[in-house]
Amino acid sequence: KAGDDQAALVGLVVTLIGKGSTDGGSGPLTYKWEQIGETPEKVTLSSTTVAEPTFMPKTLGVYEFKLTVTNKAVKSAIDNVKIFVVGTPDFGKDGCALLQSCLL
User: Which CATH class is domain 6-86?
Assistant: First the structure.
């Protein structure tokens, strides 16, 4: 399983989550992450062969990744995840984000 879709902020590290993956076999698992679909930019993952790689988006938009988990004794399991990257909140002079009301 490639984890749940998630929201992230531009310029902050995003972690893709494949740690809970299974493929029905009992042996060690191998992981392969690929960026798919039309995305705002091509990103470089910290690794494409670990359960939880990271990347830092520089552009707003939706990023989609495919995770293939393989056990040599069994067929591969495949899942996709979307990362919705938004801008950083605009803070007013009082330090409150304009995303919601501040309680002081």
Answer: mainly beta
Q: Which positions ≥6 away from 38 have C-beta within 8 Å? A: none
Q: What is the dihedral of CA 21, 33, 82, 77, to 10 degrees?
A: -40
Sign of CA dihedral 21, 25, 29, 31: negative
pLDDT in tens, 24-35: 656 788 999 999
Maximum distance among all alpha carbons in the chain? 60
Q: β-pairing, 6-9 with 74-86?
A: parallel
What is the reported pLDDT for 99?
47
Q: Look up the pTM and report it.
A: 0.79
